[in-house]
Structure to design on (957 residues):
């Protein structure tokens, strides 16, 4: 009886563990941008109680990631894979207030616990690989972290061929622990995000033949309002371009049902959110549930768990779009200067708001081979020609150590409304060691982007909803040409030096070991002997060519002697 | 005396231990190291070569965790690629080599000679993840495929450095010494490829290359929309064989069949095969199944040899091979199943020691007096010579 009770209690405990072991949710937001583009934003959340995570009971936090985090004593991890360029002016502010975005290439930052048990403080590690290519081999492990591995639910729409053909894309993994007020209720949260902006026309091209070809006359859309639009002339119309699409057209295949959409209480969650004005027409399959309200411009879909789901945004009806939000700040950074030694950085920071001053922290982590001069740091508004140091409220700087760490520069800046600030400084370009150059050194060296954290507006106009959380912007990464040697030169030098050395050594050695004397000074030099030898050779040769026998030749030689 | 007998015991046991023959052809796992060494877009075909092999070994059953794929550049997501996320090896574009599921272990600047040799010999730091390690053991059959631009006894890496024929040979020898392979198939597609395996001296290797010394290896054809050549000739015809003939993991085709499929009129160069390192040479090597290297087995080793005995046997083989290589022609012919009885070996060891042999010499603590006398004599002799000449000069 006792063992039975024990087993029963164990079962109950196990059940309780599973019950407490978090949940999983996924969501896809589709937002048509300036006509020919579509912003697709995939989000996957999973969580687990800290207790079961520490006991290595992995369910929605994948084991592969969980174990490496535990091994490296990482408390919080943020990993980003990005490529392409976000068009600020055309598409507005970035999704998720830029919090899910990384610099071009790969960016990682993590809070790591100290190695020793005595030191319980956390350390922030931050790194960027601006040169790193993001491709299918990065998406494969990303999908393997998901509970449905990209086979069901919204993840089935993620295809490397479409994702890496996007105008801009960013994949993110965030793991952090969240504690409520009550200390016992800590949980670990993992969020995976994929944001991409697809060019609709480009995505619709068939995969086996993505090269654009001239369209047939029948399929051309002509602008017939033009006076010269006759039968044999067509002015292409932009009006309907990219306005209608289906999921299968854009992503290559329809969505494969849903993934764990049902929660513990049996409620099925919607997984697709479409952001278009209410008057737009859409077509959905019968087995899916659509819900929309007339007041908001969002409609949601709950696909059937097993049926493939496809959706059509029709080209019929009014072709309207949601207005996009203007970004809080425009930032662009570039390299100035010329030559092999010196360069400069110029950053333009524009505050588009007509009323509020914007405050932000400008953070740069420069590689060690860029050696900035802090005394050349100048800030001015584009309207004035004199520098205005008042714009920079605070400066934090950590100089570089060669080959150990880069320069860290943090500036607290405030830019008044409707103005552009110009930030410049000079730097020196380091000369690298021969073996430190990459195989394609003449391409240049990638410098990671600057990260701008826009602080929530506390003061200023009260009528606006104050932003509670800071938002982020990243500039593009830079390509820095460094002084690059001619890599064949060392070989030329080695060869030339060796030749010179060999010549010099040879002649000096010769002079050292030989003694030069006149021929007549030599004692015991018998000229007659040399004469006999030479005579002998001549005779031998003559005999050889005149056909006289060898033996006779010798006899003759003897006679002559 | 008893102690001496006890010491001889391991040697007496040695012949007994070596009975399990290495010819049995049993291996317990398969590994593949697939390396492209060329950067830049116009070398698309080298990445396509290597990805074709990757796809083939995956198709025949080697899992991703046992394939080390080295790609020095990004072709699939290259801005010049009109087919994003895709690499093709044929102008018919029937097969997307990059696919949806690919794991690249070393990429970009990571593909260097140093990393390649470290990978083979497992000289990697502790923090290197498992995916970047070659976890093969004494029971593993390893396929090494390399492609790139090369020349007489070298292969360029990334247009910046080279690996030499001797580097490869020594790396493989270290692999053998560290018991990192059972049998190896080395394949190389580059200009003058056969020169790269001529220095190999480790056992159980079958090596094959695309072209002889002073011969180029050519590309097969180009795709007009990709804009560059998509595959090399030798690799193309190897794949042709593997795709058309080796259709399932149960295939009984042999290495002989594979090498007989070489058609020099199609390949436009003279491919080479090296059998002499393989036990039983060509006759036995030809009988090996293609699937022994391109497919996967998941065997479990059930042997009665404990590890130290195996170590002892392997160590002995290595020493004997080193002796053979150094030209000691009278060393016993030590293939594993042809051992001289231990007592005879003991005698032979003693006689060998008396003959002058190059190598480490034993330092003896000799009798001190005769050495001292010799030293004094030499000193006195030199002094008298010097004195004698001085006296002679002064008298002239």
């Amino acid at each position: 009886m006792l063992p039975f009770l024990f087993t029963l209690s164990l079962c109950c405990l196990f059940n309780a563990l599973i019950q407490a072991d978090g949940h999983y949710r996924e969501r896809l937001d589709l937002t048509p941008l300036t006509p020919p583009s579509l912003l697709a934003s995939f989000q996957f959340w999973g969580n687990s109680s800290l207790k079961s995570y520490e006991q290595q009971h992995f369910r929605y936090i994948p084991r592969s990631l969980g174990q490496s985090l535990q091994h490296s004593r990482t408390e919080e991890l943020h990993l980003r894979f990005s490529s392409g360029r976000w068009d600020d002016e055309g598409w507005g502010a970035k999704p998720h207030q830029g919090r899910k975005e990384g610099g071009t290439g790969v960016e990682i930052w993590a809070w790591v616990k100290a190695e020793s048990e005595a030191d319980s403080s956390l350390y922030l590690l931050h790194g960027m690989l601006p040169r790193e290519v993001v491709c299918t081999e990065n998406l494969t492990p990303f999908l393997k972290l998901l509970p449905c591995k990209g086979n069901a639910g919204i993840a089935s729409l993620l295809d490397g061929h479409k994702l890496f053909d996007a105008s801009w894309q960013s994949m993110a993994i965030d793991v952090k622990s969240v504690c409520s007020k009550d200390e016992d209720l800590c949980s670990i949260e993992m969020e995976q995000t994929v944001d991409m902006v697809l060019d609709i026309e480009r995505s619709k091209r068939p995969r086996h033949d993505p090269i654009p070809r001239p369209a047939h006359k029948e399929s051309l859309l002509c602008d017939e309002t033009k006076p010269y639009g006759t039968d044999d002339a067509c002015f292409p119309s932009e009006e309907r371009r990219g306005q209608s699409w289906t999921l299968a057209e854009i992503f290559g295949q329809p969505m494969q049902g849903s993934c764990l959409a049902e929660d513990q209480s049996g409620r099925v969650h919607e997984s697709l959110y479409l952001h278009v004005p209410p008057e737009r027409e859409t077509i959905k399959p019968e087995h899916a549930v659509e819900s929309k309200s007339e007041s908001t411009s969002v409609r949601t879909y709950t696909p059937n768990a097993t049926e493939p789901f496809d959706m059509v945004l029709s080209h019929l009806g009014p072709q309207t779009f949601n207005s996009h939000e203007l970004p809080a700040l425009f930032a662009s950074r570039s390299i100035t200067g010329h030559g092999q030694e010196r360069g400069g950085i110029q950053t333009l920071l524009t505050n588009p708001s007509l009323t509020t001053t914007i405050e932000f922290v400008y953070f740069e982590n420069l590689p060690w081979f860029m050696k900035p001069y802090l005394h050349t740091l100048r800030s001015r508004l584009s309207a004035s020609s004199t520098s205005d140091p008042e714009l920079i409220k605070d400066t934090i700087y950590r100089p570089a150590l060669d080959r150990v760490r880069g320069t860290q520069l943090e500036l607290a800046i405030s830019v008044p409304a409707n103005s552009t600030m110009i930030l410049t400084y000079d730097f020196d370009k380091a000369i690298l060691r021969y073996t430190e150059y990459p195989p394609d050194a003449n391409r240049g060296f990638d410098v990671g982007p600057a990260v701008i954290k826009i602080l929530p507006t506390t003061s200023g106009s009260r009528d606006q909803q104050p932003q509670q959380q800071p938002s982020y912007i990243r500039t593009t990464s830079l390509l820095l040409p460094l002084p690059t040697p001619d890599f064949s030169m060392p070989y030329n030098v080695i060869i030339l030096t060796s030749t010179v050395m060999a010549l010099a050594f040879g002649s000096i050695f010769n002079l050292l070991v030989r003694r030069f004397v006149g021929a007549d000074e030599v004692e015991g030099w018998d000229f007659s002997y040399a004469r006999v030898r030479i005579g002998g050779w001549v005779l031998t040769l003559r005999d050889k060519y005149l056909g006289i026998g060898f033996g006779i030749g010798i006899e003759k030689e003897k006679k002559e002697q | 005396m008893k102690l001496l007998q006890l010491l001889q015991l391991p040697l007496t046991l040695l012949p007994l231990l070596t009975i399990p023959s290495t010819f049995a052809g049993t291996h317990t796992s398969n590994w593949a190291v697939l390396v492209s060494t060329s950067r830049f877009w116009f070398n698309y075909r080298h990445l396509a070569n290597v990805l074709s092999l990757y796809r083939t070994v995956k198709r025949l059953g080697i899992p991703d965790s046992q394939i080390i794929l080295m790609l020095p550049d990004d072709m699939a997501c290259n801005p010049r690629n009109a087919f994003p996320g895709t690499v093709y090896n044929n102008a018919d574009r029937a097969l997307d080599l990059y696919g949806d599921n690919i794991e690249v272990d070393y990429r970009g600047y990571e593909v260097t000679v140093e990393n390649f040799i470290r990978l083979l010999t497992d000289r990697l730091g502790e923090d290197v993840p498992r995916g970047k390690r070659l976890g093969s053991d004494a029971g593993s059959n390893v396929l090494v495929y390399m492609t790139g631009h090369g020349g007489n006894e070298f292969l360029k890496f990334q247009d910046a450095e080279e690996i030499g024929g001797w580097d490869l040979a020594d790396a493989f020898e270290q692999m053998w010494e560290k018991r990192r392979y059972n049998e190896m198939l080395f394949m190389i597609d580059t200009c003058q490829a056969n020169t790269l395996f001529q220095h190999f001296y480790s056992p159980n290797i079958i090596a094959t290359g695309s072209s002889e010394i002073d011969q180029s290896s050519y590309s097969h054809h180009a795709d007009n929309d990709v804009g560059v050549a998509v595959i090399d000739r030798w690799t193309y015809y190897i794949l042709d064989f593997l795709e058309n003939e080796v259709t399932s993991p149960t295939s009984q085709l042999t290495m002989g069949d594979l090498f007989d499929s070489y058609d020099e009129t199609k390949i436009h160069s003279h491919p080479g095969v090296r059998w002499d390192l393989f036990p039983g040479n060509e006759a036995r090597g030809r009988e090996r199944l293609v699937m022994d290297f391109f497919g996967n087995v998941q065997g479990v080793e059930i042997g009665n040899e404990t590890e130290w005995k195996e170590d002892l046997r392997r160590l002995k083989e290595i020493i004997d091979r080193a002796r053979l290589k150094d030209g000691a022609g009278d060393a016993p012919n030590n293939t594993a199943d042809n051992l001289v009885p231990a007592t005879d070996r003991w005698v032979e060891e003693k006689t060998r020691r008396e003959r002058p042999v190059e190598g480490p010499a034993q330092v003896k603590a000799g009798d001190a007096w005769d050495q001292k006398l010799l030293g004094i004599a030499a000193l006195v002799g030199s002094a008298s010579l010097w004195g004698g000449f001085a006296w002679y000069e002064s008298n002239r």
Notes: The longest helix of chain B spans residues 368-395. Chain B touches chain A through 26 residues (CB under 8 Å). The first strand of chain B starts at residue 29 and ends at 36.
